[in-house]
């Protein structure tokens, strides 16, 4: 599963019924023709010198070193540096809350969510490839969101030439601010409000990719974390955290609030590339498919349960097949590196209150679930140092947060203007209605 840095990285479908492709083809296609997710044919091991000197490297140097093996020769070095410099134009601070516990804040980007990095990286890669090919045909980015993906993708692709974005989100199951991030941009961004759950939205997206009546008229790609350019850059968060925490000399534990499992899978990729990690904790809400799988070995998705940590309201996570592939589909091997716990809304709310009272720190609901998972794993472990990921700014979840911590006194700049705007959305009830929009050539 590992090898040295290679000039050309190929990607294969995890369904293994489609031709291997280069990075640019994988990005433009989004999903393989056999409905499988693309996966790198090799996992590069970064040299010992990289890990020895990482604390002296800039974000951009780390990003170029880590991403170059994956993009291969599809992006030249100068362009890759330009892309990552643009993408990483904000901070990723680590805030220590307790002796063994810190949070990695991933909400300092334009849409205040961890998905800003992946969405911006993918948008710039796709724009680069279309320009290199001098492609005249418009590409349609079709994406499902449980909350934060849609806003990050909309902002990342806003006004990018030659690209139209269509976002599906579940009606009544995203926060008001999340919905405004999807519906207020206009231009090349169209939002569809779906009568259903995120899993319904995701199923529609996957079905559209295989529908020749659509693909004969539109070139589709996806900006969900099923797309390699959305998924892989997320490994950078973990490298930035390792850079800051290496000096502690303690075994690291990462607790990741997990929905579609792209983020934690990217962290595991960083580990396979050589980053020392003692354990990953997949902290989930009341959608318990993965904790049950880790206990029983039976993968049995149920109906999606709506929660206050709505971005994790996923019962059938697409990226878990990649997690399994990283561990060669062996549950016992995976269990040595992955632990998964679930928490209900009642416990999540109580944790937001406790951390606010004890640490004067406001968690968002997803971060609270991550904190809970980390604390549970660290019970009795006095050696490890734990980091939980704060994946979105709490201001995006005011109806859940304000009854616990009180009224927000000052809204972030990213939110102030949104609150005043009216959004535009198109309501759809089923796949046939979506197909009607996608088969309209001038839509």
Automatic annotation (TrEMBL):
Keywords, comma-separated and alphabetical: Amino-acid biosynthesis, Lyase, Pyridoxal phosphate, Threonine biosynthesis
Which residues are recorded with the post-translational modification N6-(pyridoxal phosphate)lysine?
Answer: 115
The Threonine synthase N-terminal domain extends over 10-86
Record bears the keyword Amino-acid biosynthesis = yes
Enzyme Commission code: 4.2.3.1
Instruction: Cite the InterPro entries for this sequence.
Output: Ser/Thr_deHydtase_PyrdxlP-BS (IPR000634), Thr_synth_N (IPR029144), Thr_synth_N_sf (IPR037158), Thr_synthase-like (IPR004450), Threonine_Synthase (IPR051166), TrpB-like_PALP (IPR001926), TrpB-like_PALP_sf (IPR036052)
| Source species, domain of life | Bacteria
Needed cofactors, names only, are: pyridoxal 5'-phosphate
**Which reactions fall under this protein's catalytic activity?**
O-phospho-L-homoserine + H2O = L-threonine + phosphate
Q: In which pathway does it act?
A: Amino-acid biosynthesis; L-threonine biosynthesis; L-threonine from L-aspartate: step 5/5
- Describe the location of the Tryptophan synthase beta chain-like PALP domain by residue ranges: 104-380
Single GO MF annotation = threonine synthase activity
Q: Which SUPFAM superfamilies match?
A: Tryptophan synthase beta subunit-like PLP-dependent enzymes (SSF53686)
Q: Which Pfam families match?
A: PALP, Thr_synth_N
GO annotation, biological process: threonine biosynthetic process
Family, per entry: Belongs to the threonine synthase family.
Q: Which PANTHER family match?
A: THREONINE SYNTHASE FAMILY MEMBER (PTHR42690), THREONINE SYNTHASE-LIKE 2 (PTHR42690:SF1)
Q: What is this protein called?
A: Threonine synthase
* Native source organism of the sequence: Dokdonia pacifica
């Amino acid at each position: 599963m590992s090898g040295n840095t290679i000039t050309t990285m190929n990607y294969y479908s995890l369904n293994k019924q489609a031709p291997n492709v280069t990075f640019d083809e994988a990005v433009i296609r989004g999903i393989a023709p056999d409905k499988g997710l693309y996966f790198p044919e090799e996992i590069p091991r970064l040299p010992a010198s990289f890990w020895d000197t990482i604390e002296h490297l800039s974000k951009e140097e780390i990003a170029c070193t880590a991403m170059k093996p994956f993009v291969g020769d599809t992006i030249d070095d100068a362009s890759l540096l330009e892309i990552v410099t643009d993408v990483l134009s904000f901070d990723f601070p680590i805030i220590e809350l307790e002796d063994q516990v810190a949070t990695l804040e991933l909400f300092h980007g334009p849409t205040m969510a961890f998905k800003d990095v992946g969405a911006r990286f993918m948008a710039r890669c796709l724009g680069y490839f279309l320009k290199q090919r001098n492609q005249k045909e418009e590409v349609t980015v079709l994406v499902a969101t449980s909350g934060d993906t849609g806003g990050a993708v909309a902002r990342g692709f806003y006004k990018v030439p030659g690209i139209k974005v269509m976002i599906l989100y579940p009606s009544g199951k995203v926060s008001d601010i999340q919905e405004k991030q999807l519906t207020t941009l206009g231009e090349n961004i169209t939002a569809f409000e779906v009568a259903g759950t995120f899993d319904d939205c995701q199923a529609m997206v996957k079905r559209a990719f295989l529908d020749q009546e659509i693909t004969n008229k539109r070139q589709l790609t996806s900006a969900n974390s099923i797309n390699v350019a959305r998924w892989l850059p997320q490994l950078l968060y973990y490298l930035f955290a390792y850079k800051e925490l290496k000096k502690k000399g303690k075994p690291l534990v990462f607790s990741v609030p997990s929905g579609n499992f792209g983020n934690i899978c990217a962290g595991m990729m960083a580990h396979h590339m050589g980053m020392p990690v003692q354990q990953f904790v997949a902290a989930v809400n009341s959608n318990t498919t993965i904790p049950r799988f880790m206990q029983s070995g039976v993968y049995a998705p149920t109906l999606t349960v709506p929660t206050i940590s709505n971005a994790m309201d996923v019962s059938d996570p697409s990226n878990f097949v990649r997690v399994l592939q990283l561990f060669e589909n062996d549950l016992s091997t995976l269990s040595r590196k992955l632990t998964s716990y679930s928490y209900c809304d009642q416990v999540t709310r109580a944790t937001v209150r406790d951390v606010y009272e004890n640490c004067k720190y406001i968690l968002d609901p997803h971060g609270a679930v991550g904190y809970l998972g980390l604390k549970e794993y660290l019970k009795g472990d006095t050696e490890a140092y734990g980091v939980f990921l704060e994946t979105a700014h709490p201001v995006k979840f005011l109806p859940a947060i304000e009854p616990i911590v009180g009224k927000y006194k000052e809204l972030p700049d990213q939110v102030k203007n949104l609150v005043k705007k009216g959004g535009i959305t198109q309501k759809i009830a089923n796949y046939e209605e979506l197909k009607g929009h996608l088969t309209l050539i001038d839509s």
